[in-house]
Sequence to fold (572 residues):
Amino acid sequence: MEHKVFLTDEENDMLLGKAGTMKQKAMEVIVRYADVLGAKKLCKITKAHLFCGAHPFMLSFPSSDPDEVISKMLFCSDEKVALDRYECPYCQSDAAPMDSEKWRSMGVAEPEAKRNEQFLHRFLDSGVHLASSCIPYMLGFVPLMGEHYVSTESHAVVLMNSLWGACGNADGVEIAFSAAACGRIPLWGTHIAENRKGTHIFRVLCNVASTHDWDLLGYTVGRKLPTHSVPVLVGAPRPNIVDLKSFFASLATTAGPEICHIVGITPEAPTLDSAMGGNKPVRDVTVTEEDLEESRRMLSDAGEGSVQYVSVGCPHYSIDQVERAARYLRGKKIAEGVTLQVWTAPQIRYLADRCGYSKVIEDAGGVVLTGSCPMVSEKLPKNAAGLAFDSAKQAHYLRPVDLMQGKKIYYGSMEQCLEAALSGMWKE
Amino acid sequence: MDDVRILRGRGAVGGKAEGPAMASENAIQGWSGVDERSGMIIEKGHPFEGMSMNGAVLVLSGGKGSNGWSCHFHAAMILGITPAAMLFPKMDARTASAAAILGIPVVTDFEEDIFSLVESGDWIQVDGDAGIVRITKRDRPGKH
Fold:
Protein backbone atom coordinates (compact mmCIF):
# COMPACT_ATOMS: atom_id res chain seq x y z
CA MET A 1 0.00 0.00 0.00
CA GLU A 2 1.18 3.50 -0.91
CA HIS A 3 1.83 5.81 1.99
CA LYS A 4 3.56 9.05 2.97
CA VAL A 5 4.35 8.32 6.63
CA PHE A 6 7.83 6.97 7.37
CA LEU A 7 7.85 3.37 8.64
CA THR A 8 10.64 1.47 10.38
CA ASP A 9 11.58 -1.95 9.05
CA GLU A 10 9.53 -3.61 11.78
CA GLU A 11 6.48 -1.47 10.96
CA ASN A 12 6.90 -2.13 7.27
CA ASP A 13 7.07 -5.87 7.93
CA MET A 14 3.78 -5.63 9.79
CA LEU A 15 2.25 -3.76 6.85
CA LEU A 16 3.46 -6.50 4.52
CA GLY A 17 1.75 -9.13 6.65
CA LYS A 18 4.91 -10.73 8.03
CA ALA A 19 3.49 -10.50 11.56
CA GLY A 20 0.09 -11.98 10.69
CA THR A 21 -3.18 -10.65 9.28
CA MET A 22 -4.36 -8.87 12.44
CA LYS A 23 -1.26 -6.71 12.70
CA GLN A 24 -1.30 -6.16 8.94
CA LYS A 25 -4.90 -4.91 8.93
CA ALA A 26 -4.20 -2.83 12.03
CA MET A 27 -1.10 -1.27 10.49
CA GLU A 28 -3.04 -0.45 7.31
CA VAL A 29 -5.55 1.51 9.41
CA ILE A 30 -2.81 3.29 11.39
CA VAL A 31 -0.90 4.20 8.21
CA ARG A 32 -4.08 5.62 6.61
CA TYR A 33 -4.74 7.54 9.83
CA ALA A 34 -1.17 8.90 9.88
CA ASP A 35 -1.49 10.11 6.29
CA VAL A 36 -4.83 11.80 6.98
CA LEU A 37 -3.24 13.64 9.93
CA GLY A 38 -0.10 14.42 7.97
CA ALA A 39 2.07 12.70 10.60
CA LYS A 40 5.71 12.11 9.66
CA LYS A 41 6.23 8.92 11.66
CA LEU A 42 4.67 6.55 14.20
CA CYS A 43 5.47 6.03 17.88
CA LYS A 44 5.18 2.95 20.08
CA ILE A 45 2.35 2.84 22.59
CA THR A 46 2.69 1.02 25.90
CA LYS A 47 -0.92 1.26 27.12
CA ALA A 48 -4.29 0.88 25.44
CA HIS A 49 -7.71 1.50 26.99
CA LEU A 50 -10.29 -0.06 24.68
CA PHE A 51 -14.08 0.10 24.20
CA CYS A 52 -14.65 -3.66 24.46
CA GLY A 53 -18.00 -5.42 24.36
CA ALA A 54 -20.92 -6.08 22.00
CA HIS A 55 -21.62 -2.36 21.72
CA PRO A 56 -24.73 -1.18 19.86
CA PHE A 57 -22.76 0.60 17.09
CA MET A 58 -21.00 -2.68 16.19
CA LEU A 59 -24.24 -4.53 15.78
CA SER A 60 -25.18 -2.49 12.72
CA PHE A 61 -23.05 -5.11 10.94
CA PRO A 62 -25.36 -8.08 10.43
CA SER A 63 -23.41 -11.13 11.57
CA SER A 64 -23.73 -13.53 14.48
CA ASP A 65 -20.00 -14.31 14.36
CA PRO A 66 -18.15 -12.06 16.90
CA ASP A 67 -14.88 -12.38 14.97
CA GLU A 68 -16.56 -11.17 11.79
CA VAL A 69 -18.12 -8.21 13.61
CA ILE A 70 -14.82 -7.32 15.32
CA SER A 71 -12.92 -7.64 12.02
CA LYS A 72 -15.32 -5.36 10.17
CA MET A 73 -16.29 -2.83 12.83
CA LEU A 74 -13.00 -2.51 14.74
CA PHE A 75 -10.32 -3.48 12.21
CA CYS A 76 -12.18 -2.18 9.14
CA SER A 77 -11.49 -5.44 7.33
CA ASP A 78 -13.88 -7.29 5.03
CA GLU A 79 -11.68 -10.32 5.52
CA LYS A 80 -12.03 -12.14 8.84
CA VAL A 81 -8.98 -11.26 10.91
CA ALA A 82 -7.35 -13.93 13.04
CA LEU A 83 -7.45 -12.28 16.46
CA ASP A 84 -4.05 -12.72 18.09
CA ARG A 85 -2.58 -11.13 21.18
CA TYR A 86 -2.23 -7.38 20.70
CA GLU A 87 1.26 -5.93 20.35
CA CYS A 88 0.64 -3.24 23.01
CA PRO A 89 1.99 -4.66 26.29
CA TYR A 90 -0.79 -3.35 28.56
CA CYS A 91 -4.44 -3.30 27.46
CA GLN A 92 -7.49 -2.68 29.64
CA SER A 93 -11.16 -2.43 28.71
CA ASP A 94 -13.29 0.71 28.76
CA ALA A 95 -17.00 0.71 29.64
CA ALA A 96 -19.06 -2.23 28.35
CA PRO A 97 -22.72 -2.34 27.30
CA MET A 98 -23.78 -3.90 30.60
CA ASP A 99 -22.88 -5.07 34.09
CA SER A 100 -21.42 -8.54 33.54
CA GLU A 101 -23.13 -9.85 36.70
CA LYS A 102 -26.22 -7.74 37.35
CA TRP A 103 -27.36 -7.31 33.73
CA ARG A 104 -30.85 -8.59 34.58
CA SER A 105 -31.52 -5.59 36.80
CA MET A 106 -30.70 -3.36 33.81
CA GLY A 107 -33.40 -5.02 31.73
CA VAL A 108 -30.95 -6.93 29.53
CA ALA A 109 -32.21 -10.18 27.96
CA GLU A 110 -30.15 -13.35 28.39
CA PRO A 111 -29.09 -13.79 24.71
CA GLU A 112 -27.79 -10.22 24.72
CA ALA A 113 -25.78 -10.85 27.89
CA LYS A 114 -24.34 -14.07 26.46
CA ARG A 115 -23.34 -12.32 23.25
CA ASN A 116 -21.61 -9.59 25.23
CA GLU A 117 -19.62 -12.14 27.26
CA GLN A 118 -18.67 -13.89 24.03
CA PHE A 119 -17.31 -10.60 22.65
CA LEU A 120 -15.51 -9.74 25.90
CA HIS A 121 -13.76 -13.10 25.87
CA ARG A 122 -12.45 -12.48 22.36
CA PHE A 123 -10.77 -9.34 23.75
CA LEU A 124 -9.55 -11.21 26.81
CA ASP A 125 -7.89 -13.69 24.43
CA SER A 126 -6.13 -10.73 22.77
CA GLY A 127 -4.64 -9.75 26.14
CA VAL A 128 -7.12 -7.11 27.34
CA HIS A 129 -7.78 -6.96 31.10
CA LEU A 130 -11.57 -6.75 31.49
CA ALA A 131 -11.71 -3.76 33.84
CA SER A 132 -14.82 -2.45 32.02
CA SER A 133 -14.55 1.09 33.25
CA CYS A 134 -14.27 4.67 32.02
CA ILE A 135 -11.89 5.54 34.90
CA PRO A 136 -8.85 3.43 33.93
CA TYR A 137 -6.58 5.80 35.83
CA MET A 138 -8.11 4.64 39.12
CA LEU A 139 -7.65 0.98 38.18
CA GLY A 140 -3.97 0.54 37.44
CA PHE A 141 -3.86 2.22 34.03
CA VAL A 142 -1.36 4.95 34.84
CA PRO A 143 0.68 6.25 31.87
CA LEU A 144 3.60 8.32 33.14
CA MET A 145 4.90 11.63 31.85
CA GLY A 146 5.89 11.27 28.21
CA GLU A 147 4.36 7.78 27.90
CA HIS A 148 2.40 7.19 24.68
CA TYR A 149 -0.99 5.49 25.02
CA VAL A 150 -4.44 5.29 23.44
CA SER A 151 -7.78 5.53 25.24
CA THR A 152 -11.31 5.41 23.88
CA GLU A 153 -12.60 7.48 26.81
CA SER A 154 -12.54 11.20 26.04
CA HIS A 155 -12.21 12.46 29.62
CA ALA A 156 -9.58 9.87 30.52
CA VAL A 157 -7.40 11.27 27.72
CA VAL A 158 -7.72 14.84 29.01
CA LEU A 159 -7.13 13.74 32.60
CA MET A 160 -4.08 11.56 31.95
CA ASN A 161 -2.47 14.10 29.61
CA SER A 162 -3.16 17.02 31.92
CA LEU A 163 -2.42 15.49 35.33
CA TRP A 164 0.52 13.29 34.46
CA GLY A 165 1.97 14.67 31.26
CA ALA A 166 1.09 11.46 29.42
CA CYS A 167 0.61 11.53 25.64
CA GLY A 168 -2.64 10.45 24.02
CA ASN A 169 -5.11 11.89 21.50
CA ALA A 170 -8.88 11.59 21.11
CA ASP A 171 -8.43 8.77 18.61
CA GLY A 172 -11.54 6.93 17.48
CA VAL A 173 -12.57 3.50 18.71
CA GLU A 174 -11.38 1.67 15.57
CA ILE A 175 -8.07 3.56 15.62
CA ALA A 176 -7.50 2.63 19.27
CA PHE A 177 -8.00 -1.09 18.54
CA SER A 178 -5.68 -0.97 15.55
CA ALA A 179 -3.11 0.96 17.60
CA ALA A 180 -3.28 -1.69 20.34
CA ALA A 181 -2.99 -4.52 17.83
CA CYS A 182 0.11 -3.17 16.06
CA GLY A 183 1.43 -1.21 19.07
CA ARG A 184 1.75 2.06 17.13
CA ILE A 185 0.03 5.44 16.80
CA PRO A 186 0.94 8.44 14.62
CA LEU A 187 3.39 10.80 16.31
CA TRP A 188 1.04 13.77 16.15
CA GLY A 189 -0.99 16.13 18.35
CA THR A 190 -0.28 15.80 22.09
CA HIS A 191 2.42 13.19 21.37
CA ILE A 192 4.56 16.23 20.41
CA ALA A 193 5.51 18.73 23.16
CA GLU A 194 4.99 21.80 20.97
CA ASN A 195 1.26 21.04 20.60
CA ARG A 196 0.64 20.89 24.36
CA LYS A 197 1.11 24.59 25.07
CA GLY A 198 -1.85 26.67 26.22
CA THR A 199 -3.80 28.75 23.70
CA HIS A 200 -6.73 30.11 25.76
CA ILE A 201 -6.77 31.41 29.33
CA PHE A 202 -9.87 30.74 31.44
CA ARG A 203 -10.14 32.82 34.61
CA VAL A 204 -12.41 31.25 37.19
CA LEU A 205 -14.37 34.08 38.83
CA CYS A 206 -17.21 31.87 40.08
CA ASN A 207 -17.52 29.96 43.32
CA VAL A 208 -16.26 26.38 42.89
CA ALA A 209 -16.71 24.50 46.15
CA SER A 210 -17.89 20.96 45.34
CA THR A 211 -17.51 18.13 42.83
CA HIS A 212 -20.83 19.26 41.36
CA ASP A 213 -19.42 22.79 40.87
CA TRP A 214 -16.39 21.32 39.09
CA ASP A 215 -18.74 19.33 36.85
CA LEU A 216 -20.60 22.53 35.91
CA LEU A 217 -17.30 24.40 35.46
CA GLY A 218 -16.04 21.80 32.96
CA TYR A 219 -19.26 21.99 30.96
CA THR A 220 -19.03 25.79 30.93
CA VAL A 221 -15.36 26.01 29.93
CA GLY A 222 -16.12 23.51 27.14
CA ARG A 223 -18.98 25.65 25.85
CA LYS A 224 -16.65 28.62 25.53
CA LEU A 225 -13.67 26.72 24.13
CA PRO A 226 -13.08 26.96 20.37
CA THR A 227 -12.17 23.86 18.35
CA HIS A 228 -8.52 22.77 18.51
CA SER A 229 -7.60 24.84 21.56
CA VAL A 230 -5.63 24.14 24.72
CA PRO A 231 -7.30 25.76 27.76
CA VAL A 232 -5.35 26.98 30.77
CA LEU A 233 -7.37 27.31 33.96
CA VAL A 234 -6.41 30.10 36.37
CA GLY A 235 -7.84 31.05 39.73
CA ALA A 236 -9.71 27.87 40.63
CA PRO A 237 -9.47 26.57 44.19
CA ARG A 238 -7.43 23.42 44.73
CA PRO A 239 -9.35 20.39 43.39
CA ASN A 240 -9.08 16.71 44.33
CA ILE A 241 -9.04 13.81 41.88
CA VAL A 242 -12.81 13.24 42.17
CA ASP A 243 -13.48 16.91 41.33
CA LEU A 244 -11.21 16.64 38.29
CA LYS A 245 -12.79 13.36 37.17
CA SER A 246 -16.08 15.26 36.81
CA PHE A 247 -14.46 18.43 35.47
CA PHE A 248 -12.67 16.65 32.64
CA ALA A 249 -15.74 14.54 31.81
CA SER A 250 -17.98 17.55 31.29
CA LEU A 251 -15.20 19.54 29.59
CA ALA A 252 -14.77 16.74 27.04
CA THR A 253 -18.55 16.75 26.48
CA THR A 254 -19.06 20.29 25.21
CA ALA A 255 -15.62 20.53 23.60
CA GLY A 256 -12.87 18.33 22.22
CA PRO A 257 -9.67 19.24 24.10
CA GLU A 258 -6.99 16.64 24.72
CA ILE A 259 -5.17 18.55 27.43
CA CYS A 260 -6.14 21.27 29.92
CA HIS A 261 -3.57 22.91 32.14
CA ILE A 262 -4.53 23.97 35.64
CA VAL A 263 -2.05 26.49 36.98
CA GLY A 264 -0.46 25.28 40.19
CA ILE A 265 -1.89 21.76 39.86
CA THR A 266 -0.83 20.10 36.59
CA PRO A 267 2.87 19.43 35.93
CA GLU A 268 3.18 21.41 32.71
CA ALA A 269 1.63 24.44 34.43
CA PRO A 270 3.60 25.43 37.53
CA THR A 271 2.92 29.01 36.38
CA LEU A 272 0.67 30.59 33.76
CA ASP A 273 3.72 31.49 31.67
CA SER A 274 5.06 27.96 31.61
CA ALA A 275 1.59 26.62 30.68
CA MET A 276 1.47 29.00 27.73
CA GLY A 277 5.04 28.08 26.74
CA GLY A 278 5.58 31.41 24.98
CA ASN A 279 2.20 31.36 23.19
CA LYS A 280 0.31 34.63 23.24
CA PRO A 281 -3.24 33.79 24.40
CA VAL A 282 -5.72 33.71 21.51
CA ARG A 283 -8.36 34.76 24.04
CA ASP A 284 -8.56 35.51 27.73
CA VAL A 285 -11.95 34.27 28.93
CA THR A 286 -13.71 34.73 32.27
CA VAL A 287 -16.07 32.19 33.81
CA THR A 288 -18.68 33.78 36.04
CA GLU A 289 -21.53 32.65 38.26
CA GLU A 290 -23.95 33.63 35.45
CA ASP A 291 -22.10 31.33 33.04
CA LEU A 292 -22.51 28.40 35.44
CA GLU A 293 -26.21 29.23 35.85
CA GLU A 294 -26.62 29.24 32.08
CA SER A 295 -25.04 25.76 31.92
CA ARG A 296 -27.35 24.56 34.67
CA ARG A 297 -30.40 25.80 32.73
CA MET A 298 -29.16 23.99 29.60
CA LEU A 299 -28.66 20.74 31.49
CA SER A 300 -31.68 20.55 33.76
CA ASP A 301 -35.36 21.02 32.98
CA ALA A 302 -36.86 23.86 35.00
CA GLY A 303 -39.20 23.49 37.95
CA GLU A 304 -40.23 20.55 40.09
CA GLY A 305 -41.55 17.24 38.90
CA SER A 306 -41.91 13.56 39.65
CA VAL A 307 -38.88 11.31 39.15
CA GLN A 308 -38.91 7.58 38.42
CA TYR A 309 -35.26 7.02 37.50
CA VAL A 310 -32.11 8.26 39.20
CA SER A 311 -28.62 7.42 37.97
CA VAL A 312 -25.42 8.58 39.67
CA GLY A 313 -21.83 7.65 38.95
CA CYS A 314 -20.66 9.13 35.66
CA PRO A 315 -17.72 8.93 35.39
CA HIS A 316 -17.77 5.75 37.50
CA TYR A 317 -17.75 6.54 41.20
CA SER A 318 -14.58 6.20 43.22
CA ILE A 319 -14.87 4.23 46.47
CA ASP A 320 -15.27 7.38 48.57
CA GLN A 321 -18.16 8.52 46.36
CA VAL A 322 -19.90 5.14 46.78
CA GLU A 323 -19.39 5.47 50.54
CA ARG A 324 -20.84 9.01 50.50
CA ALA A 325 -23.91 7.76 48.65
CA ALA A 326 -24.28 4.91 51.16
CA ARG A 327 -23.94 7.31 54.08
CA TYR A 328 -26.68 9.52 52.63
CA LEU A 329 -29.02 6.56 52.15
CA ARG A 330 -28.33 4.71 55.41
CA GLY A 331 -31.55 3.72 57.14
CA LYS A 332 -33.74 5.34 54.46
CA LYS A 333 -35.94 3.94 51.67
CA ILE A 334 -36.25 5.26 48.15
CA ALA A 335 -39.78 6.06 46.98
CA GLU A 336 -41.93 3.36 45.45
CA GLY A 337 -41.66 3.14 41.69
CA VAL A 338 -38.20 4.76 41.60
CA THR A 339 -35.13 3.02 40.17
CA LEU A 340 -31.83 4.16 41.70
CA GLN A 341 -28.59 3.08 40.00
CA VAL A 342 -25.16 3.81 41.46
CA TRP A 343 -22.49 3.18 38.81
CA THR A 344 -18.89 2.26 39.52
CA ALA A 345 -16.10 -0.01 38.29
CA PRO A 346 -16.23 -3.78 39.00
CA GLN A 347 -13.11 -3.57 41.17
CA ILE A 348 -14.59 -0.73 43.20
CA ARG A 349 -17.85 -2.64 43.73
CA TYR A 350 -15.79 -5.51 45.11
CA LEU A 351 -14.40 -3.06 47.63
CA ALA A 352 -17.83 -1.51 48.28
CA ASP A 353 -19.24 -5.01 48.92
CA ARG A 354 -16.37 -5.76 51.28
CA CYS A 355 -16.90 -2.52 53.19
CA GLY A 356 -20.67 -2.97 53.37
CA TYR A 357 -21.52 0.14 51.30
CA SER A 358 -23.31 -1.85 48.58
CA LYS A 359 -25.59 -3.47 51.15
CA VAL A 360 -26.58 -0.09 52.61
CA ILE A 361 -27.49 1.15 49.12
CA GLU A 362 -29.41 -2.05 48.36
CA ASP A 363 -31.24 -1.93 51.70
CA ALA A 364 -32.41 1.55 50.73
CA GLY A 365 -33.76 0.10 47.47
CA GLY A 366 -30.95 1.12 45.12
CA VAL A 367 -28.55 -1.01 43.11
CA VAL A 368 -24.79 -0.73 42.65
CA LEU A 369 -24.01 -1.46 39.00
CA THR A 370 -20.66 -1.72 37.28
CA GLY A 371 -18.97 -1.59 33.93
CA SER A 372 -21.41 0.59 32.02
CA CYS A 373 -23.79 3.58 32.27
CA PRO A 374 -27.20 4.60 30.89
CA MET A 375 -25.71 6.21 27.74
CA VAL A 376 -23.29 3.41 26.86
CA SER A 377 -25.74 0.62 27.60
CA GLU A 378 -28.66 2.40 25.92
CA LYS A 379 -30.83 0.65 28.53
CA LEU A 380 -33.07 3.56 29.35
CA PRO A 381 -36.30 3.42 31.31
CA LYS A 382 -39.17 3.58 28.82
CA ASN A 383 -41.86 4.53 31.32
CA ALA A 384 -40.09 7.13 33.43
CA ALA A 385 -41.52 10.63 33.08
CA GLY A 386 -38.66 12.21 35.02
CA LEU A 387 -34.99 11.19 35.16
CA ALA A 388 -32.24 12.63 37.37
CA PHE A 389 -28.46 12.58 36.90
CA ASP A 390 -25.51 13.97 38.84
CA SER A 391 -23.40 14.17 35.70
CA ALA A 392 -23.49 16.87 33.04
CA LYS A 393 -22.14 14.30 30.61
CA GLN A 394 -25.11 11.94 31.01
CA ALA A 395 -27.69 14.75 31.06
CA HIS A 396 -26.19 16.34 27.95
CA TYR A 397 -25.85 13.22 25.83
CA LEU A 398 -29.24 11.78 26.81
CA ARG A 399 -31.21 14.86 25.82
CA PRO A 400 -31.13 14.20 22.01
CA VAL A 401 -31.93 10.48 22.38
CA ASP A 402 -35.27 9.47 20.80
CA LEU A 403 -36.60 7.71 23.88
CA MET A 404 -36.01 10.80 26.02
CA GLN A 405 -38.32 13.05 24.01
CA GLY A 406 -41.24 14.25 26.14
CA LYS A 407 -39.48 13.26 29.36
CA LYS A 408 -37.99 15.58 31.98
CA ILE A 409 -34.23 15.40 32.52
CA TYR A 410 -32.98 16.83 35.80
CA TYR A 411 -29.38 17.50 36.72
CA GLY A 412 -27.91 18.28 40.13
CA SER A 413 -25.48 17.20 42.82
CA MET A 414 -25.30 13.61 44.10
CA GLU A 415 -27.22 14.68 47.21
CA GLN A 416 -29.98 16.32 45.12
CA CYS A 417 -30.27 13.15 43.02
CA LEU A 418 -30.40 10.83 46.05
CA GLU A 419 -32.99 13.11 47.67
CA ALA A 420 -35.08 12.86 44.48
CA ALA A 421 -34.82 9.06 44.68
CA LEU A 422 -36.02 9.12 48.30
CA SER A 423 -38.95 11.48 47.71
CA GLY A 424 -39.78 10.59 44.11
CA MET A 425 -39.73 14.32 43.37
CA TRP A 426 -37.18 16.70 41.85
CA LYS A 427 -36.95 19.86 43.88
CA GLU A 428 -34.92 22.90 42.86
CA MET B 1 -23.17 32.28 -15.31
CA ASP B 2 -22.49 30.23 -12.23
CA ASP B 3 -20.47 31.79 -9.46
CA VAL B 4 -17.64 29.31 -9.07
CA ARG B 5 -14.74 29.42 -6.60
CA ILE B 6 -11.75 27.13 -6.42
CA LEU B 7 -10.19 26.33 -3.06
CA ARG B 8 -6.91 24.48 -2.65
CA GLY B 9 -5.79 22.40 0.30
CA ARG B 10 -4.16 19.10 1.23
CA GLY B 11 -5.87 15.95 0.01
CA ALA B 12 -6.18 13.80 3.16
CA VAL B 13 -8.21 11.00 1.56
CA GLY B 14 -8.23 10.52 -2.20
CA GLY B 15 -11.15 10.11 -4.58
CA LYS B 16 -13.73 12.39 -6.16
CA ALA B 17 -17.24 13.18 -4.96
CA GLU B 18 -19.79 15.98 -5.06
CA GLY B 19 -22.84 17.11 -3.19
CA PRO B 20 -24.55 19.99 -1.43
CA ALA B 21 -22.53 21.63 1.36
CA MET B 22 -23.54 21.36 4.99
CA ALA B 23 -21.26 23.99 6.48
CA SER B 24 -20.83 25.09 10.08
CA GLU B 25 -17.99 26.50 12.13
CA ASN B 26 -19.47 24.73 15.16
CA ALA B 27 -17.72 21.43 15.86
CA ILE B 28 -20.08 18.49 16.14
CA GLN B 29 -20.40 15.57 18.56
CA GLY B 30 -20.47 12.08 17.05
CA TRP B 31 -21.90 10.23 20.06
CA SER B 32 -25.47 11.40 20.48
CA GLY B 33 -24.81 13.80 17.63
CA VAL B 34 -25.16 11.55 14.60
CA ASP B 35 -28.01 9.05 14.57
CA GLU B 36 -26.48 6.14 12.73
CA ARG B 37 -29.83 4.53 11.89
CA SER B 38 -31.31 7.59 10.13
CA GLY B 39 -28.24 9.67 9.27
CA MET B 40 -29.85 12.65 11.02
CA ILE B 41 -27.86 15.12 13.08
CA ILE B 42 -29.46 15.10 16.54
CA GLU B 43 -27.11 17.29 18.58
CA LYS B 44 -29.28 19.82 20.42
CA GLY B 45 -28.73 23.38 19.26
CA HIS B 46 -26.31 22.51 16.43
CA PRO B 47 -27.10 24.34 13.17
CA PHE B 48 -27.42 20.90 11.50
CA GLU B 49 -29.96 19.58 14.02
CA GLY B 50 -32.70 17.77 12.12
CA MET B 51 -30.72 17.57 8.85
CA SER B 52 -29.52 14.37 7.18
CA MET B 53 -25.81 14.04 6.42
CA ASN B 54 -26.49 11.47 3.69
CA GLY B 55 -24.91 12.55 0.40
CA ALA B 56 -23.81 15.92 1.77
CA VAL B 57 -20.34 17.45 1.76
CA LEU B 58 -19.75 18.13 5.45
CA VAL B 59 -17.76 21.29 6.15
CA LEU B 60 -16.96 21.51 9.86
CA SER B 61 -14.31 23.05 12.10
CA GLY B 62 -13.82 19.68 13.78
CA GLY B 63 -15.09 17.06 16.20
CA LYS B 64 -15.89 17.24 19.90
CA GLY B 65 -17.34 15.12 22.69
CA SER B 66 -16.85 11.39 22.97
CA ASN B 67 -13.85 9.74 21.32
CA GLY B 68 -16.52 7.45 19.88
CA TRP B 69 -16.93 9.86 16.94
CA SER B 70 -15.82 7.88 13.91
CA CYS B 71 -17.66 4.72 14.99
CA HIS B 72 -21.07 6.38 14.53
CA PHE B 73 -20.22 7.47 10.99
CA HIS B 74 -18.82 3.98 10.43
CA ALA B 75 -21.99 2.29 11.68
CA ALA B 76 -24.10 4.61 9.50
CA MET B 77 -21.99 3.70 6.47
CA ILE B 78 -22.58 -0.01 7.14
CA LEU B 79 -26.30 0.84 7.09
CA GLY B 80 -25.90 2.64 3.74
CA ILE B 81 -25.76 6.24 4.96
CA THR B 82 -22.71 8.42 4.45
CA PRO B 83 -21.64 11.96 3.64
CA ALA B 84 -20.27 12.31 0.08
CA ALA B 85 -17.08 13.99 1.29
CA MET B 86 -15.74 15.98 4.23
CA LEU B 87 -13.80 19.25 4.43
CA PHE B 88 -12.01 20.53 7.52
CA PRO B 89 -9.82 23.63 7.92
CA LYS B 90 -7.58 21.49 10.18
CA MET B 91 -7.70 17.80 11.09
CA ASP B 92 -8.11 16.54 14.65
CA ALA B 93 -7.98 13.03 16.08
CA ARG B 94 -11.76 12.58 15.96
CA THR B 95 -12.30 13.74 12.38
CA ALA B 96 -9.12 12.08 11.10
CA SER B 97 -10.25 8.77 12.60
CA ALA B 98 -13.50 9.04 10.63
CA ALA B 99 -11.67 10.09 7.47
CA ALA B 100 -9.29 7.12 7.67
CA ILE B 101 -12.12 4.68 8.26
CA LEU B 102 -14.82 5.92 5.88
CA GLY B 103 -12.49 6.35 2.90
CA ILE B 104 -14.64 9.13 1.39
CA PRO B 105 -12.72 12.09 -0.13
CA VAL B 106 -11.41 14.48 2.51
CA VAL B 107 -9.51 17.75 1.98
CA THR B 108 -7.97 19.87 4.75
CA ASP B 109 -5.34 22.59 5.47
CA PHE B 110 -6.84 25.09 3.00
CA GLU B 111 -5.01 28.14 1.70
CA GLU B 112 -8.02 30.33 2.58
CA ASP B 113 -10.72 30.41 5.26
CA ILE B 114 -13.21 27.89 3.95
CA PHE B 115 -16.06 29.28 6.06
CA SER B 116 -15.86 32.65 4.33
CA LEU B 117 -16.28 30.89 0.97
CA VAL B 118 -18.78 28.08 1.59
CA GLU B 119 -22.37 28.22 2.81
CA SER B 120 -24.78 25.37 3.33
CA GLY B 121 -26.50 24.55 0.06
CA ASP B 122 -23.57 25.46 -2.21
CA TRP B 123 -22.72 22.66 -4.64
CA ILE B 124 -19.28 21.25 -3.83
CA GLN B 125 -17.05 19.11 -6.02
CA VAL B 126 -14.19 17.52 -4.10
CA ASP B 127 -11.03 16.10 -5.60
CA GLY B 128 -9.29 14.38 -2.71
CA ASP B 129 -6.32 13.32 -4.86
CA ALA B 130 -5.42 16.83 -5.97
CA GLY B 131 -6.70 18.58 -2.83
CA ILE B 132 -8.99 20.83 -4.90
CA VAL B 133 -12.49 21.93 -3.98
CA ARG B 134 -14.82 23.54 -6.55
CA ILE B 135 -17.59 25.60 -5.00
CA THR B 136 -20.65 26.59 -7.02
CA LYS B 137 -22.61 29.20 -5.11
CA ARG B 138 -26.35 28.70 -4.86
CA ASP B 139 -29.05 31.31 -5.29
CA ARG B 140 -26.80 34.04 -6.57
CA PRO B 141 -28.04 36.54 -9.15
CA GLY B 142 -27.41 35.18 -12.63
CA LYS B 143 -27.50 31.55 -11.56
CA HIS B 144 -30.05 29.38 -13.35
Summary: Chain A has a mean pLDDT of 97. Chain A has 16 helices and 17 strands.
